[in-house]
Every structure is written in structure tokens, then in C-alpha cells.
Give the backbone structure.
Amino acid sequence: MPNRLSVAPSARRLTNSLRDIGYSFESAVADLVDNSVAAGADQITIEIHFEGRGSYLTIADNGAGMHDDHINEAMRFGSRREYDDGDLGRYGLGLKTASLSQCRRLEVVSRGNRLSSPVARAIDLDFIQAVDDWVTLDISEEPEALAAASLIKGNSGSVVVWRKLDRLLPAKSPEGGWARRRIEGLGPKLEAHLSMVFHRFLSGEAGTKISISVNDVDLEPWDPFCRDEAAAETLDVDEFEIEHGEVSDTVTLRRYLLPPREDFSSREAFEQASGPEKWNRQQGLYIYRANRLVQWGGWAGIRTIDEHTKSARASLDFGTKLDEAFNINVAKMRVNLPGQLRKMMTRPINELCIAADAAYRRSSPRIVTEISEAPKKPFALGGDESGAAIGLALRTAAARTGNFEALEAISSLIRSEMPELARHLGFD
């Protein structure tokens, strides 16, 4: 049997590498909100403070909190804790990698119950660079940690503090006006991101209703599917059984058709529904892991985005049992659809987009007029727009009657043998 050698990685080199794992500012904060939700918090307060080079961010919650052993393990890269089914955590890296992607010093202050004293730990990259060792600092008695502990308002809770914001402050003139505007500009973007990613938790749809505030602004849930709009449509629900190795679980697809502009309850509601990335880029799949939105926009390779289908959105829900099947990344921002699921979703997604395309054309007065007049005109290959309307009607009828695959076979034959007619009908 060969001798075993323990070869620890260089703390100096690896911590620098882990800073570039792919977080944006908004996704890094969202990863820390995951920890608060997992700890049972229902109040989460985020504050971004501009103080020049000394600027800092705090995230305080009223969750379960931690004692000495727990906080020491939480500060370990790749912590040894086990995750239960439904936990928002995954790799035991999020607290560290998310935080250090934005700052050079991470501090965590926590209290397990109202009778216990706060405990505080810090990871300081400058110190690690100097000693090249995996060192966590006990800062429980330092004034800054005691001040942070005052943010714990309930019987228990935790506070995460980001200091040395080298990824958020400009290297030159971190005390200047541009630096201030940059820090102050983080708030609105973060509000929009968290309102979307955690909308089921903010509304109570995921269970216990939680509140999140950013710089004293209480967040409202942003529902991608506008279910409070009377004119919004909900299509049939599909469930798919997915197997990965010895694990199998159900994935649920829900399809929604948002109303056209004129059918929204107000202009403000229409503008709000466009989302952070605006209409075209917000169309598509919204993929949820344990009720937390992890990916949104686009059709995951099933089809391309299109102006005519911008009102089509669909939710796809999977549980943590299928993490490996979906290959979720550390930042919890990207997943890969299993091939078997992609194939099963193709028909319902195409049906949804056909319905969205039909609704788009109906909402245009010009197209409506031409469609209404089309039967009165003799059929002519020169009438491209009326032909496209006929093709659209055929696709819509096929989707509604469950004969979409048959129409696909017919359109393929027409494209092959009668290309001019295929172009006229919009089948090319």
C-alpha cells in the first residue's frame, strides 16, 4: 500500500483563485440571503455604507444564530455540514466565496440565543497573504464586532460584514464623488435582483413570509408571471419524472401568457412587468430550486427569443435531490437542463410560444384588420402577410388540439416540396 501524503493547497493562491468564481455583486448578496433563509430568519436587513476607503456592507438577520463550534465550521472553506433536502445551501462555500468575491475582509457576528454572548470571526485576505495559511481570526472582543452585534434585534441572529471593498470601490480616489455614486448606485440594482430571486419568499408563497430591506427600503415581490393581472393567462401544468443515477424526482413546468400592454391594469403595471432585463430578455424559462429563482430569461436552447413571444414565460421547479442532474453551479446562478427533460419540454414550450405569437399579432390593429379581410381575398402567393396569418392560425389550432407534431411533419414536407408556399405560410 503506498504511503499517503497530506499536501495542503497554498492558502495565498487558492483564496485569490476563489475570488473569481463568477459572482456579480447582486448574486453574491443573494447567496448570503440564502444562508439567512436557511437559518429560519424572517427579517433580513441589508445596509450599504459609504465611508470612502472604509466603506462597508452589513447583512443582519433574526435567524437561529451560531455558537462557537458552529461559527468556526461556517468559516471553513467547504464546511463539513450536511444539507437537508430543501436547503438553499449546496457546497459549503457560499458564505466565503460570495463575500470574498466583493471584499478582502469578511466578518461574521452571531448570537445563538438571548442569554449567550455574541461570537465573531473574520477572514482577512491581507492576513492570509502574509502568513499563507488557512487562518480564521477570533474578533469577538473587538469594538467593530460588538457594534455589529447590536444589529441583532431578536433573541438570536447573525450579522455578516464586508470590509475592504476592493471590488466595489475604484482603486483611484475611493473617497471621491464618483466612488460615492458607485456605492449608492448598488442599492436599486440589488433591490430589483432580490425582489425577483426571492419573490416567493417575500410573498409567502414558499411558506413563511420573510421581509428584506435594502438601505431602509422594504422589498416587494416581483412576480414574473403577473398573476395578479386579470388578463394574464395560465396554461396547463406539466410534470416530468427525472432520473439521475439512483435518484428520481418530479420537475414541474407551469406556463404563463402575459397580457398585451393595453390589457394591463395600468401603464405602471406594464412597465413593472418588463423586469430588470426588460421585455425581450425576460421572456422564457424561470428555473427555481427549492422555490429560489436560480436562472431566468431565454429558452435554455429549446428555441430563441423573439419579439413576438415576449409575453411568454414559464416556471420550472426542481428540488435539491436533482442538483447533480441540473449541474447547478456554486454561485447558484446557472443550471444545465438534463437532456431527457429538454426533449420532454419542447412541445409545451413551443405551444406556449405559438400562443404568445398569436396574442402579439392580435394586439396589432394592422394585423387584425388584414386577418379579418384575408378570407375575402383570392389566395395569392404574393400576399405574404395574409399567408403568414393563415400559417399562424394553423399552428395555433394544432397546438390547442394537441396536433403540433403532426403539423410539424406537414410543414417539413411543404418546405421540401413547395418552398414558395412554405415561405408564404411562414413555415420557412
User: Anything to note?
Assistant: The mean pLDDT is 88. The two ends are 66 Å apart (CA to CA). The chain has three domains: 11-218, 233-344, 364-424. The first helix runs from residue 11 to 18.
